[in-house]
């Protein structure tokens, strides 16, 4: 074997051959404008001076950004600021709309694209009628012992059980909504508890029991619990919203209905964007979701459930409630794991689980189709590109990301781990989207609001190696002086102001930092150019059985920690040099076997990896069987399905699942630990371009794209120490070229590469490099 040795960090010589067909040299030297990074442009509400904005936009352009995304908010401001400047709470008013028009024109003059967030603060909301607001069900109860005739008041509606946990994190809940509507009155016989959870039998609707004073009922013998199910608004208001009026007036809209989406579009987005020329807005953006409810609900849910699933949900409503309610913020402080379990079970606990599964599926359908789908349609009708952060929402993150023209991940949610970043990138690959973005360079820090250049290079490399190919900086604040004379930064942490939490968030990009960014942004732009050219390549499709990803704050103490939050499976795939995508159940159900693998949407794979999958639709199991029968290696990381989800036609669907699993067992390889997985992968799956040299493991991350003439390979060393990659090439190729995105230089490493030849490349700490290899003629 021949080793080509390159010590990266030394300036490569000028290119000795033009490898323009794989990655055109002209693109590398003069990257397209669309490859430049984006920055959030935080406005202190409507307190923006057009002349100041114009000067700052030129600074942003000079720093190498390609677009700004307007987000007006009040974070980091206090009562003294609001009293001193009434413009802060003017978002949505005519003066604000004129400021947006002037800013968009100034951005165009500065050579910047103009993007617009659909809302002030987050999650999406605005001052609106309560029937448009986020809804929930509350469950009041009283106990009766029969036989007796009872006449008395209805059980009172309780307050939200999640309120204390939310308020421990953030001030985003107004007073409880007193306008409650009785949805159902039920009675259920109390059975023996199971795992200290009460069980219900013989649940019945008391449809004729209501009286002007409450209800009257002839109680049968035994212990009975009366359930009054009430609908009301959650009182959840927009965090940091800069709308006129009081803070609690800006209500988070109903995310399970078109009505909620329309309230935000017609009440805010359309009036704000109407004065702008149709070609002056590039992208509209919906930020991540922080939703809540004792039991998330919508007026449309009961009818949609009956139409979709085929049985009425009302008699089963008590079985849907969870201890501690449902709130992202509550989950983040549930340190003892006391919340999330069922409040009630049936005598057969699986029956309660199945009904809850049906509810979750219908809720996801409403969120994805009627809420997100409405934004997609609206954006396209107006000629805008739709960019979306799907995480935190009620539907499968992968499926919802795939609805967007530009799926966007986030470096704060999920700890900013490689595994989480991979979701948005994977959805983009399956959906055939060219661009996939990430809200980047944001962490929680005990002190300070700055990241070092080395930390930013590490975070950038992590994102690109996960398949992200355009970065959105967490933000540049408009230069606004607060009432106390200090310059405004919305994420400085502390107390006594409108806050996103007490800890500071990095990285604060002020005028001084903007002046330091041109070289770094050229580095990002070159990476975006390379990693948006051609088509993505992945070896393995890895089914994510869970529709969501648990949120974990990326709290930093000291320097950024490499590989934080990564799963052992990801590390094992990396060690074998295998590129993977995460796929959803829906995506895999639509997969089609083809020669040398299978396709899901726009992407081709050669092997399938399965998460533990105890519950699965028969259609999914049967399609996995078809893929396995076609000769595709299928590796299961745990249990195979034992039943289908949901209550509808359960017996027949369960039988199909069991029959499918019996057939699948003939083909699938089951592994239970990382060593066994690595051995199995080494025997059954080979990377399409490179693998580790014999007897070695890769410690670097690899991402791959394919152009018409050859392959583009990204190498990233996520470590604070230098690393050596020994890459064995699978097939012959020509003009193996190294491209250094930091310096812009390139160098031909070898004119020809033979199959099984090993190339050793040394990478500095946190370094990212590009390799290209032209197809052999």
CATH architecture assignment name of the largest domain: Alpha-Beta Barrel
- The tally of structural domains comes to 4
| Tally of contiguous helical segments | 19
Shape: globular
Q: List the uncertain runs.
A: 1-19
Q: State the share of residues found in helices, binned by percent.
A: 25-40%
Describe the secondary structure blueprint for this structure.
Layout: E1 3-7, H1 25-29, E2 38-44, H2 50-62, E3 67-73, H3 79-84, H4 94-109, E4 113-117, E5 125-127, E6 135-152, H5 163-169, E7 181-194, E8 197-205, E9 210-211, E10 214-233, E11 250-252, H6 258-273, E12 283-286, E13 292-293, E14 296-297, H7 301-309, E15 326-327, H8 328-332, E16 345-346, H9 349-381, E17 385-388, H10 397-401, E18 406-410, H11 418-431, E19 437-440, E20 443-445, H12 453-465, E21 470-477, E22 505-506, H13 511-516, H14 518-530, E23 535-537, E24 540-543, E25 555-556, H15 568-575, E26 580-583, H16 585-589, E27 592-594, E28 597-600, E29 603-605, E30 607-610, H17 618-629, E31 634-636, H18 650-664, E32 669-670, H19 674-684, E33 690-692, E34 701-706, E35 710-716, E36 723-729, E37 733-739, E38 746-753, E39 758-763, E40 768-775
Parallel strand pairs: 1-39, 2-3, 2-21, 3-4, 4-12, 8-16, 12-17, 17-18, 18-19, 19-21, 20-25, 24-26, 24-30, 30-31, 31-32
Antiparallel strand pairs: 5-11, 6-10, 6-14, 7-8, 7-10, 9-10, 13-15, 20-22, 23-34, 27-28, 28-29, 33-36, 34-35, 35-40, 36-39, 37-38, 37-40
């Amino acid at each position: 074997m021949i080793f080509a040795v390159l010590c990266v960090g030394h300036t490569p010589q000028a290119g000795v051959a033009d490898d323009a067909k794989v990655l055109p040299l002209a693109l590398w030297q003069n990257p397209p404008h669309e490859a430049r990074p984006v920055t959030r442009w935080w406005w202190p509400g409507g307190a923006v001076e057009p002349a100041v904005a114009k000067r700052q936009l030129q600074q942003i352009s000079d720093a190498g950004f390609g677009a700004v995304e307007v987000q007006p908010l009040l974070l980091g401001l206090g009562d003294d600021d609001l009293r001193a400047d009434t413009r802060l709470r003017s978002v949505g008013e005519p003066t604000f709309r004129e400021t947006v028009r002037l800013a968009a024109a100034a951005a165009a003059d500065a050579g910047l694209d103009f993007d617009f967030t659909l809302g002030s603060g987050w999650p999406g909301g605005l001052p609106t009628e309560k029937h448009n607001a986020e809804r929930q069900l509350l469950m009041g109860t009283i106990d009766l012992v029969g036989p007796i005739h009872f006449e008395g008041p209805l059980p009172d509606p309780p307050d939200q059980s999640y309120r204390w946990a939310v308020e421990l994190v953030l001030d985003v809940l107004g007073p409880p909504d007193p306008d409650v509507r009785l949805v159902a009155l039920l009675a259920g016989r109390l059975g023996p508890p199971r795992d200290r959870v009460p069980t219900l039998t013989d649940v019945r609707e008391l449809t004729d029991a209501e009286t002007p004073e409450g209800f009257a009922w002839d109680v049968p013998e035994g212990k009975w619990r009366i359930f009054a199910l009430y609908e009301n608004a959650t009182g959840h208001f927009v965090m940091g919203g800069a709308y006129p009026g009081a803070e609690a007036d800006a209500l988070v809209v109903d995310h399970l209905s078109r009505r909620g989406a329309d309230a935000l579009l017609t009440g805010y987005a359309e009036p704000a964007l109407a004065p702008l020329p149709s070609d002056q807005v590039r992208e509209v953006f919906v930020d991540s979701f922080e939703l809540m409810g004792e039991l998330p609900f919508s007026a449309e849910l009961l009818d949609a459930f009956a139409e979709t699933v085929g049985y009425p949900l009302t008699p089963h409503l008590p079985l849907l409630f969870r201890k501690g309610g449902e709130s992202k913020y509550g989950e983040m402080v549930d340190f003892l794991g006391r919340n999330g379990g069922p409040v009630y079970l049936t005598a057969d606990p699986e029956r309660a689980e199945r009904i809850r599964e049906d509810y979750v599926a219908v809720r996801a359908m409403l969120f994805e189709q009627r809420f997100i789908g409405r934004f997609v349609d609206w954006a396209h009708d107006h000629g805008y590109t739709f960019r979306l952060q799907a995480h935190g929402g009620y539907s499968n993150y992968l499926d919802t990301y795939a609805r967007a023209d530009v799926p966007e991940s986030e470096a704060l949610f999920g700890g900013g781990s490689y595994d989480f970043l991979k979701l948005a990138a994977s959805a983009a690959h399956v959906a055939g989207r060219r661009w996939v973005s990430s809200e980047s360079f944001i962490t929680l820090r005990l002190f300070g609001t700055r990241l070092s250049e080395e930390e930013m290079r590490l975070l950038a490399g992590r994102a690109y190696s996960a398949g992200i190919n355009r970065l959105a900086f967490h933000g540049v604040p408009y230069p606004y002086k607060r009432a106390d004379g200090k310059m405004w930064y919305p994420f400085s942490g502390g107390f006594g102001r409108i806050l996103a939490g007490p800890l500071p968030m990095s990285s604060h990009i002020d005028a001084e930092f903007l002046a330091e960014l041109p070289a770094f942004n050229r580095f990002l732009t070159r990476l975006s150019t390379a990693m948006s050219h051609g088509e993505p390549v992945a070896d393995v499709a890895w089914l994510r059985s869970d529709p969501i990803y648990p949120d974990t704050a990326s709290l930093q103490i000291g320097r950024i920690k490499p590989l934080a939050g990564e799963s052992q499976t990801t590390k094992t795939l990396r060690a074998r040099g295998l590129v993977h995508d995460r796929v959803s159940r829906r995506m895999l159900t639509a997969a089609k076997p083809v020669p040398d693998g299978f396709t899901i949407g726009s992407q081709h794979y050669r092997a399938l990896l399965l998460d533990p999958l105890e519950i699965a639709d028969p259609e999914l199991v049967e399609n996995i069987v078809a893929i396995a029968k076609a000769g595709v290696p299928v590796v299961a990381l745990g249990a195979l399905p034992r039943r289908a989800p949901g209550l509808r036609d359960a017996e027949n669907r369960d039988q199909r699942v069991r029959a499918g699993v019996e057939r699948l067992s003939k083909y699938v390889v089951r592994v239970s630990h990382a060593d066994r997985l690595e051995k199995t992968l080494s025997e059954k799956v080979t990377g399409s371009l490179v693998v580790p040299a014999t007897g070695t493991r890769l410690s670097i991350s690899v991402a791959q794209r394919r152009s018409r003439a050859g392959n583009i390979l990204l190498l990233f060393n996520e470590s604070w120490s230098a690393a050596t990659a020994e890459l064995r090439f699978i097939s012959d190729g020509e003009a193996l070229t190294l491209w250094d995105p930091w310096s812009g230089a390139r160098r031909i490493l070898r004119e020809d590469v033979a199959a099984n030849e090993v190339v050793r490349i040394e990478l500095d700490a946190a370094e990212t490099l590009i390799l290209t290899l032209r197809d052999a003629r």
